[in-house]
Design goal:
Blueprint (H helix, E strand, L loop, with lengths): L4 H15 L14 H24 L4 H20 L8 H22 L5 H27 L8 H28 L1 E3 L5 E3 H4 L6 H26 L3 H29 L4
Antiparallel strand pairs: 1-2
Helix pairs in contact: 1-2, 1-4, 1-5, 1-9, 2-3, 3-4, 4-5, 5-6, 5-9, 6-8, 8-9
């Protein structure tokens, strides 16, 4: 698994930093304080810089690396300009995020040139959106301690968004693991579900369970807790969901890079 450590970190960190600012639409600046935007933009810059540094170590294509640096520089500049601004234009921030997502096409080709590029891009960005979504919801939950009368619907919207993303990945993984297959040493084909019963595939079952099923169940309890206006309890459950999703995403990225499974 450690053979693909840097590749995995690059996919997770870059994807996370590129899609995370899109979630700021859930909590517009007029509904929350500027400190929330400063914290989140600063965090994206740090995570993105780590991802870019890791990508540089992979000796990537020079053209793609230039685009990645342009994306990071744009994010840093916009974050600096809006650091103490009273009004922040989410359209510009989202445009930089979309530019970053487009840049991921080249990153994916560098890291896994032999795999289905569209499939790898889809699963990588979907996984990044789920990871970014659960972190966003957790951080937003903390902000209810700092901002008086913050509308509970903001955290509810974040929870619903996370639910939709988890649902999409669960359906995708379920169908994909049914139709895709591996060939054993005897030339016999096995579906990926059957593969999970083998020694090499056990962690794939763990990844599906921890990355999809556990967060969906936790989201149900988070939603029930939010209906009781208990934001602190919901945030505590989001902590558990963060750990579960991160663990599942690491394993899914390993099977993507090691076996080429688009999960």
């Amino acid at each position: 698994m450690f053979n693909y450590f840097t590749d995995t970190i690059v996919l997770i960190f870059l994807g996370y930093a590129m899609v995370y600012p899109l979630f700021l639409w859930i909590a517009p600046l007029e509904k929350i304080d500027g400190g929330f935007y400063r914290f989140n933009l600063g965090m994206c810059c740090v995570v993105g810089a780590l991802g870019v540094a890791g990508y540089h170590l992979l000796s990537p294509d020079h053209i793609t690396e230039i685009y990645v640096w342009v994306w990071l520089a744009s994010l840093l500049i916009v974050s600096a300009i809006n650091w103490n601004a009273e009004k922040i234009n989410n359209v510009i921030i989202s445009a930089i995020s979309l530019f970053g997502c487009a840049t991921m096409i080249g990153v994916v080709f560098d890291i896994a040139p032999e795999l289905n590029q569209n499939g790898v891009l889809f699963t990588s960005l979907l996984g990044s959106m789920i990871t970014a979504g659960v972190f966003f919801a957790m951080i937003l939950g903390h902000w209810y301690l700092n901002v008086i009368a913050l509308p509970i619907r903001l955290l509810k919207n974040a929870t619903i968004t996370l639910w939709v993303l988890l649902g999409v990945r669960t359906v995708w993984d379920t169908v994909y693991m049914k139709v895709d297959y591996v060939v054993d040493h005897y030339g016999i084909q096995h579906s990926l579900w059957a593969f999970t019963m083998q020694f090499e595939g056990f962690l794939l079952a763990v990844a599906f369970f921890m990355g999809n099923l556990v967060p969906i169940v936790l989201n149900y309890f988070i939603w029930r807790t939010l209906k009781l206006q208990a934001t602190q309890s919901a945030t505590g459950l989001l902590y558990v969901s963060v750990v579960s999703i991160l663990f599942g995403d690491l394993l899914l990225k390993y099977y993507l890079l090691q076996f080429g499974f688009l999960v």
